[in-house]
Specification:
Number of domains: 3
Order of helices and strands: EEEEEEEEEEHHHEHHEEEEEEHEEEEH
CATH architecture of the largest domain: 2-Layer Sandwich
Number of strands: 21
CATH superfamily of the largest domain: Chloramphenicol acetyltransferase-like domain
Shape: elongated
Strand content: 25-35%
CATH topology of the largest domain: Chloramphenicol Acetyltransferase
Length: 415
């Protein structure tokens, strides 16, 4: 018997959510069969079996969060093999018990005592995942008073979150009489929002970014009349060749890469206390999906033409929305571009995608009357460009210089 644990499915990922078990206890399992679907920060991946055998006990219920290294399930082996090279996700087995030679029992297998009519048995010596313990400490929740909904009565993160928002769900001590009713806030009805794993991860990352990085913000106006004309000129031929639409975004990313070449200090990532400036421009492009914002990476974006960028962005955006991104698609970005103008925004304050040090937004291009150099008034296409940056990595002069260069490239696009 071996124990399969939660693998680390990417850099900085510390936990994952079991979305679906694809094998049930007693099912035969072949080498590399998918055991379950795991949702991490931005992707969903199938967990391959490292052995052939039979599915044993499952320690994490569907929808439950598990930390990296936490036991997921037992497998009764029938033939030990190495994982296939085509399935790179790491899977680890629990260490063997020295005296018996068998895998040590996972700490999350609770000893359950169940009496007649007990619908939700409580284990003796309950096991709590690190995520549950951390959340309980942050909100001063007594875990012993929570009725767990997990396997064997295990307390899940979802149970703690519900107890935080609805204290009436906590079991009352025997010495206290439970209230007759659980009044709502001010007598008004309300619903408790249920966050998806992706939404919870986004929230945690945003909080981390704001607490770790002292962030500054600045904005410039760019006259993109020439850029709009260039896009109109290129659009018909592009659509005939590729069938898709040609937006302003690839032009903006192209101009961003040119500006980053002049101000490379913005193309960096923190690694511990070390700021690393990268030669490759691996540009993250924010994509709105049904489950939250995803930032797939266009590798070596500076080596692509506007047409190549349009195709690359369309590809990662389509795969992001259909949740077909691979881990390699979201890791290692060096700078982020966000097309907030797609939602009609004319100004925004983005949050730096740590450990990166800067993020820029492309706002909506709008037609406005503008005073021209010859003192006449003309109608021009104007776009606001907003930059947030980590003040530890640069000063305002570098950030301002980058924005000025970017504005220049937008106003005089490469033909």
């Amino acid at each position: 018997m071996v124990t399969v644990t939660m693998p680390q499915l990417g850099e900085s990922i510390t936990e994952g959510t079991v979305l679906h078990w694809l094998k049930q206890p007693g099912d035969a399992v072949a080498l590399d069969d998918a055991l379950c679907e795991i949702e991490t920060e931005k992707v969903t991946a199938e967990l391959p079996s490292p052995y052939a055998g039979t599915m044993g006990q499952q320690f994490v219920a569907e929808g439950e969060v598990a930390q990296v290294g936490e036991p997921l399930c037992d497998l009764a082996e029938t033939g030990a093999s190495q994982p296939s090279a085509s399935r790179p996700q790491p899977v680890t087995a629990a260490p063997a018990n020295v005296s018996t030679g068998r895998p040590a029992s996972p700490p999350s297998a609770p000893d359950v005592a169940q009496g007649p009519g007990d619908r939700n048995p409580e284990p003796r010596g309950r096991f709590y995942s690190p995520a549950v313990l951390r959340l309980a400490r942050e909100h001063a929740i007594d875990l012993e008073r929570i009725t767990g909904t997990g396997i064997g009565g295990r307390v899940r993160r979802k149970d703690v979150e519900q107890a935080i928002t609805m204290p009436s769900l906590l079991r009352q001590p025997e010495s206290e009489a439970p209230p007759a009713t659980a009044p709502s806030e001010g007598g008004r009805p309300f619903r408790v929002a249920t966050f998806s794993p992706t939404r919870r991860t986004i929230a945690a990352n945003m909080q981390r970014s704001m607490s770790e990085a002292p962030q500054a913000w600045t904005m410039v106006e760019a006259d993109v009349t020439a850029l709009m004309a260039q896009r109109s000129h290129d659009r018909t031929a592009f659509e005939q060749r590729h069938g898709g639409s040609l937006t302003l975004l690839p032009y903006f990313v192209h101009a961003t890469c040119r500006a980053l070449r002049e101000f490379p200090s913005l193309n960096g990532r923190w690694t511990g206390d070390e700021l690393r400036i990268y030669d490759d421009l691996d540009i993250g492009v924010a994509v709105a999906t049904e489950t939250g914002l995803v930032v797939p990476v266009v590798r070596q974006a500076d080596r692509l033409s506007v047409e190549g960028l349009a195709l690359a962005i369309s590809d990662v955006a389509e795969r992001a929305r259909s949740r077909r991104l691979q881990l390699s698609d979201i890791e290692g970005g060096t700078f982020t571009v966000n097309n907030t103008g797609a939602f009609g925004s004319i100004a925004s304050k983005p949050i730096v995608n740590v450990p990166q040090v800067a993020i820029v937004t492309m706002e909506r291009a709008v037609r406005r009357p503008v005073a021209l150099d010859d003192s006449s008034i003309g109608v021009r296409w104007i776009m606001n460009v907003c930059l947030s940056f980590d003040h530890r990595a640069m000063d305002g002069s570098e950030a301002g210089g980058f924005l000025a260069a970017l504005r220049g490239f937008l106003e005089q696009p490469a033909g």
